[in-house]
Amino acid sequence: MREICEHEKCTGCHACVSVCPKQCIHMEENQEGFLYPVIDESKCIDCGLCKRTCMVSGKAKKEYEKKAFAMMNNDEEERRNSSSGGVFVLLAKWILSEKGAVYGAAFNDSFEIEHIRVDNIADIKKLQTSKYVQSRIGDCFKLAKNDLDNGKKVLFTGTPCQIAGLRGYLKKDYDNLYCQDIMCHGVPSPKLWRKYLKEIQVGNLSEISFRDKSVSWWQFCMKIKGDKRKIKDIFYDNTYMKVFLSDIALRQSCTSCNYKELNYFSDITLADFWGLDKSYPELDDSTGVSLVLVNTQKGESLIKQISEKTRITQVEVARAVEGNRPAITNTPAHKNRGKFFENIDNMTVNQLKKRYVEGNLFQKVMKKLHIS
Q: Are residues 235 and 103 in the same domain?
């Protein structure tokens, strides 16, 4: 079967599907639960657009000296309802105030994760907060291009590989396009997520938060609400989060991610400012602070549009990423990854966790976040 790129490097970004003039490429889920492109050979005309669009080996142009900021939304309710400092919601509101559109990851009716388009303020909340599952892009690249060609401002958010995929698909920069990615250490399997939701038996789901901050920003909770029962676990006690944070269930390409060493195709990168208590303790109030990396001049102009609604402090890039290693280093492959996925259909998530997730995860996570 023909490959667009090396299988182990494919990020599942959907760029090849979106660009195909004959619509002969579709995404299929593999045994691990990740989406990969499949070509219908009977329709393919060998135009090569899919391979030329693929960005798995792309390098961003470094024409701008990156800047870093610690930022907090002045609206405490918006910050409380955000994963960290509440910067995204301000970016989204500004785009919508300019009659633009915002694209990002949201729960669908089955609480799976997919990208959607939002063009009104009431729907911004669908895109807020972290979602620790790989999102399905679907037609969002095509929809964004249509918005851009019609002169609308667009804020497209996603993982670094998704932003790179969008850039590859568009083939050119647009003055009205703003890209914001997240500092990502890897995406876990959608199959694992579906399996977990089925096994916890909470009934009809009504609410899920991967990052409930009612305890604190540093000690966030996984909160799930159904009509039968509720779950609220500190993140290092939750079965799904234990598996995710062990790195055993990540997509294969995440262990050789090309978008490290601050190689971002975005205008702005957002992250939790982990390590803040050590590098800039005077800014830490345990409610959430965003680390904002500004990667382009356009990104700097976007930050200026919202800065009056934030508490903003410029920080040193090197010090900022000390506690945020995913900015510069890959996540190593877990030694038990193969066995884990060989048994994903035969064992419960809890059984998989007990069999293959080793060591004191709490200590590993604290070390990862540099707060031990």
A: no
**Residue 2 is assigned to a structural domain of this protein:** no
Q: Taking the complete model, does pTM exceed 0.85, yes or no?
A: yes
Q: How many residues does the chain have?
A: 372
Name the band, by pLDDT with cuts 50, 70 and 90, for residue 247. Answer: very high
Residues 359 and 242 in one domain: yes
Q: In 40-55, which positions are buried (b, 16+ CB within 10 angstroms) versus exposed (e)?
A: eeeeeeeeebbeebbb
> Using one digit for the tens of pLDDT, what is the confidence trace for 271-281?
999 988 888 88
Asked if residue 173 and residue 118 are part of one domain, the reply reads yes
Note the pLDDT tens digit of each residue in 49-87. Answer: 999 999 987 888 777 899 999 999 999 999 999 999 999
Sign of the torsion angle spanned by Cα atoms 155, 61, 324, 244: positive
Residues 158 and 230 in one domain: no
Query: What range does the domain containing 198 cover?
Result: 190-249+335-368
Instruction: Kindly report, residue by residue over 298-320, the tens digit of the pLDDT.
Output: 999 999 999 999 999 999 999 88
Q: Are residues 127 and 167 both part of a single domain?
A: yes
- Give residues with Cβ within 8 angstroms of 208, minimum separation 6: 107, 111, 223, 224, 225
Mean pLDDT of the chain: 92
Look at residue 28 and tell me if it is in a domain: yes
If one counts the domains in the chain, the total is 3
Distance of alpha carbon 318 from alpha carbon 159, whole angstroms: 21
Q: Are both 311 and 339 inside the same structural domain?
A: no
Residues paired with 230 in a beta bridge: 225
End-to-end CA distance of the chain: 48
Are the C-beta atoms of 267 and 295 separated by less than 8 Å? Answer: yes
Per-residue pLDDT reduced to its tens digit, 217-226: 888 999 999 9
